[in-house]
Amino acid sequence: MPRRGGRRKKSRTQEAVDDRPKVAAAAPAKGKGAGKATPPPQAADRGEKAIPRSMIVRRGNTSKHVAELLLELRKVMAPHTALKLREKATNTLKDFVHAAQPLGVSHLLMLAQRETQVNLRIARLPAGPTLALKILAFELARTVRAAQKRPFDTTAAYATAPLVVLNNFGADEAAPHVKLLRVTFEAMFAPIDVSTVKLADCRRVVLVERDPATDVLELRHYAIRASASGVSKTVKRVVEAKGKTPDLSKLRDISEYVRGLARPANDDAYGSDSEAENDAKVVLAGKYAGRSNVKHRESAIKLAELGPRLTMKLYKVQRGVCDGDVLYHAFAGDRATAGADLSKQPTSRGFRGDDDDDESGGDADDDDDDESGEEVDDDDDDDEDDSDGDADDEGAAAPPRPSPPPATKKRRRGGRGK
């Protein structure tokens, strides 16, 4: 490079060769549809559009156990729910409703905590109704797994929607709020067509049982397992072994292991001999998950609990989305005795339940007022009797009231003397 003025001057530059294929840039959209958002993929398919989709959010401050329960409820509702949704403290109800409309979300589930009380609200979008349930007790999935001898866990089961089984929800003669509960739980999960459903897609089941006496709901989450039937345990352990086989190095012949005359060294890794043998046995209509579960072969069906466990009770139903007229209230009897009208009660626009206040109602206040009124009247009568008796006594005089202490004057320091 030649020098000029003490500095090198660049006289020639080699042009860089771009070997990448050139892609024509897309022309900007023109017309009425310019600038509109792309519709979701389920909008084009009628079958996908009919599948209910949910959004589970947390409202307010909650403990770490309630936050973990929120994540597990999303797994129960998988795959038709927002698993990685992150809500902010500044988000309002309108934000979720507006975001759910273009995504095709049909149900909005909200978890809220008030001190030791946890509430779950299920809202049907976009116009309601809203069911408010009080969670009486819950157990997380890790607690359920810790109590099991051989816990079952699989990620493939969450790729398909679970089946829903309802028990003791009555028929046509059931109460209106019970019918609404049944319809809501049925509409939250994907519908099943028996003629077209695939057996391999039935991997999980959600059981909801209602106690007719107390209206308490019990929710359980299970995984469906199938294993070959009519096969001895020793052979089943060899067939269903996943990367592990029994150690037969100390046996003279395999017949000793099959007939149960001897046990391998690592036999403890394949379960004990106390496994249940009274499982339901069915003939499979198609291939199912697991080895030896082929078509037209008898298999034993088992249920393995995944968790979580929920114990809930419905206490309020509103016409709109967390707003509107109160259609049902579990403590309506207390309000009726207090002379209140449910249709004129102020509606709750928040997310935290006030069932404790509703349960107490106005009866306690009325009883306190009545009792206090009776006591005041009795005291007045007693005072009048005492005053009459004092007037009739001879020379009886009321004790003199103590006179207040005389006020003392404080002397100022440094003041002028008289």
From TrEMBL:
<protein>
    <submittedName>
        <fullName>Ribosome biogenesis protein</fullName>
    </submittedName>
</protein>
<dbReference type="InterPro" id="IPR045112">
    <property type="entry name" value="PPAN-like"/>
</dbReference>
<feature type="region of interest" description="Disordered">
    <location>
        <begin position="1"/>
        <end position="50"/>
    </location>
</feature>
<feature type="compositionally biased region" description="Basic residues">
    <location>
        <begin position="1"/>
        <end position="11"/>
    </location>
</feature>
<feature type="region of interest" description="Disordered">
    <location>
        <begin position="340"/>
        <end position="418"/>
    </location>
</feature>
<feature type="compositionally biased region" description="Acidic residues">
    <location>
        <begin position="354"/>
        <end position="395"/>
    </location>
</feature>
<feature type="compositionally biased region" description="Basic residues">
    <location>
        <begin position="408"/>
        <end position="418"/>
    </location>
</feature>
<dbReference type="Pfam" id="PF04427">
    <property type="entry name" value="Brix"/>
</dbReference>
<dbReference type="InterPro" id="IPR007109">
    <property type="entry name" value="Brix"/>
</dbReference>
<feature type="compositionally biased region" description="Low complexity">
    <location>
        <begin position="23"/>
        <end position="37"/>
    </location>
</feature>
<feature type="compositionally biased region" description="Basic and acidic residues">
    <location>
        <begin position="12"/>
        <end position="22"/>
    </location>
</feature>
<feature type="domain" description="Brix">
    <location>
        <begin position="52"/>
        <end position="323"/>
    </location>
</feature>
